[in-house]
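Progress note, sequence design subtask.
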């Protein structure tokens, strides 16, 4: 029998919900040991940190599982941003991710529990650096936001594998207009398209967005914003009013590069809510806004080649 996996969505410090989901999935903990399952392994899609109140406990729980071999974990955009916030540029002037008010606000919960000058902050950032950008497991792929062969191959060539490069090579991933900046952005955040002015929106963090994420898992011959861009329910317009949703503004067909492989892929990142559903027979998202009073979701993978919503488990 092939190895079986439980792929868990964005935790964002919601450690009590994570413990509840692990228990529901049949994982147990003996004493101070790691959570484990007798014949399954957990896989985390990334975004362990920021937002929620249990940053340290979440990291300690997941790290213990990874180091004990009872789980895998992929890098999310929030861990990537934390690395940039902590890492000075090669010339010593500033950091890879600028330390401004906006970015501090996004990292605030993490920084409250891991102050930047503490030894444990440096240690956890070093651990984030060990997390792969994607996972290729038996019969299954896991990546935080988008499986794009083109961009994954660019990143793979940079470091001969799925891990972040170091030094000046890492700085390229934080340098706008560099091909590696686009590559890491697509893999960890998803491909985007510019929105017309009247469709700009504020996300659940209140950030004004001028771009929309594209549904890279669908095929559309005449794509429009309505059928090919991800709209997050509950978003508002720039003035704080309920957003009407995207319209039939056409977008270039070349902007949407659908996932056509037969190997199933599991992602997080997209803040879904409502009923659990797959994206396509070969793609599923397990981010259902756990930290925003949603649910923490796992997909129970048992080697199937066609994914089913019936394999999605939520807590609470």
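Output:
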């Amino acid at each position: 029998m092939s190895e079986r996996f439980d792929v868990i969505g964005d935790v964002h410090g919601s450690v009590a919900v994570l413990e509840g989901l692990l228990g529901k999935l049949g994982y147990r903990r003996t004493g101070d040991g790691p959570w484990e399952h007798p014949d399954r392994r957990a896989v985390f899609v990334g975004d362990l940190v920021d937002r929620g109140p249990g940053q340290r406990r979440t990291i300690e729980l997941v790290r213990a599982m990874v180091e004990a071999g009872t789980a895998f974990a992929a890098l999310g955009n929030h861990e990537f941003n934390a690395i940039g916030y902590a890492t000075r540029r090669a010339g010593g002037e500033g950091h890879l991710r600028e330390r401004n008010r906006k970015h501090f606000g996004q990292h605030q919960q993490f920084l409250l529990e891991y102050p930047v000058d503490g030894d444990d902050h440096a240690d956890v950032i070093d651990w984030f650096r060990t997390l792969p950008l994607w996972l290729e497991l038996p019969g299954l792929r896991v990546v935080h936001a988008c499986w794009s062969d083109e961009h994954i191959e660019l990143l793979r060539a940079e470091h001969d594998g799925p891990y972040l490069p170091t030094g000046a090579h890492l700085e390229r991933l934080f340098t706008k207009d560099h091909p590696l900046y686009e590559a890491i952005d697509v893999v960890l955040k998803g491909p985007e398209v510019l929105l017309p002015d009247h469709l700009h929106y504020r996300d659940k963090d209140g950030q004004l967005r001028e771009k929309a994420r594209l549904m890279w898992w669908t095929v559309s011959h005449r794509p429009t914003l309505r059928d090919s861009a991800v709209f997050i329910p509950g978003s508002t317009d720039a003035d704080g009013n309920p957003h009407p949703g995207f319209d039939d503004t056409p977008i270039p067909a070349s902007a949407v590069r659908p996932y056509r492989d037969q190997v199933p892929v599991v992602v997080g990142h997209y803040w879904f809510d409502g009923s659990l559903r797959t994206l396509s027979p070969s793609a599923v998202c397990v981010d259902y806004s756990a930290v925003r009073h949603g649910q923490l979701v796992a997909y129970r993978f048992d080697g199937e080649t066609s994914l089913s919503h019936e394999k999605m488990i939520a807590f609470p």
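The chain has nine helices and 14 strands. Work on this subtask will continue into the next period as scheduled.
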